[in-house]
Amino acid sequence: MTKRSASTQNGGKVAASGDKVSQNGTVQDGDDRKVGLGKKVTLLRGISIIIGTIIGAGIFISPKGILKHSGSVGMSLVVWIACGVLSLFGALSYAELGTCIKKSGGHYTYILEAFGPQMAFVRLWADLIAIRPAALAVISLAFGQYILEPLFMPCSIPPMAVKLATAISITSVMYLNSMSVTWTARIQIFLTFSKLLAIAIIIVPGMYQLFKGETKNFENAFDLSKVHLSGMPLAFYSGMYAYAGWFYLNFVIEEVDNPERNVPLAICISMAIVTCCYVLTNVAYYTVMSAEELLASEAVAVTFAEKLLGNFSIAVPVFVALSCYGSMNGGTFALSRYKCFRLCWLSSHISSIHLPLPALLIIYPMTMLQLFVGDIYSLLNFMSFLRWLFIGVVVLGLIYLRYTKPDLPRPFKVPLFIPVVFCLTCFFMVFLSLYSDPVNTGIGFAISLTGIPAYYIFIHFNHRPKWLQRALDSFNRSLQIIMLAVPAEK
Q: How far apart are the C-alpha atoms of 49 and 255, rounded to whole Å?
């Protein structure tokens, strides 16, 4: 057998045993038969993607909602721990899917394998036009609010200024993810350590006060007089929002080095770190603030800093903004790797490369549209409904595949009760939201249903109207021109 040449005509680098890495970061074998992204996501980068995406605005938004609906300090801490365990269950279920279905794309890929192309397309359609743009818009609005707060204190920030700062931050994230995989991952590691530093600024002085004996706010912590079972599911809803993001590593599974080992390990390490950080952060909050003060606060972290850190409190909004930016960057890095471009309106050349640029060209305008026409609460409501509905469907697919494909290689396999408990929890939260907020959740459900006619127009029908075919062909050519104009990654 002859040894493959290690050289390339275009200055590509050797990946392994004849594989070539082209200038755009894709790996190509010596016979030009397979093209894909290089394995640049190590264990550390995988941990940084998960932690960097989970820890964002949630820890600064959700404490108030959890305390309000749980009814007491002690029960709110129980909810934080329980949400961490449930999120770990979901993450472990995704780890099994990611190691037995080694394709990037996350939810879309797993629904495709379990339930077929129509259900997968509906999930992808809802993701591209509603869920991901709304999620990015929400976290970006939090970034814009916090980054401008030191400049406008003590005055209120003009809403248009927040939106403009948000638009600039979204554009910078999109540009970074379009230009370089390597630099995106490096910056994500820096932002992850920055946000852990921000959490430490809250935890360390809070624990110091606790050890000094400041425990008056924990007296009667488990007073059940204000606890109502009807409010507990809403408390879990807020908690699960804060933990959302554990599934993003599965979106880049093809870029993970040694996924059988690194994916489960990165998930377990990340969820342990995040759960500990969240619980300790809330303990620090309660050490400094009473339950009434926390419920009255509009920005919990800022109120905490003003009460304890004095002049240094002005730095807290900046750290919170960095935390939000890290979530924006990590989420964009992962979701831009969607395998959505195997769909019919893109050529086989583009869909075989799976570059992030085409995904970003769709996500960016949808995010900007929702940013300027929606508000943070309406975006959160219909986004959360769709997110947990389809995540529940994905984990249901894992259970379904256990019985329909029992011989599928599973390097990592979780006990069956883990996906069952998580799946039931997801569907319970979804049905609860239909009861508690029928308007916004109804809008989200209606948006997802538009994916059914879109599937038949774009995918199923072979004979499309000429005007539609011309539009799709024109869009396809424009993408190819833009991609060719993008400079090679250094």
A: 12
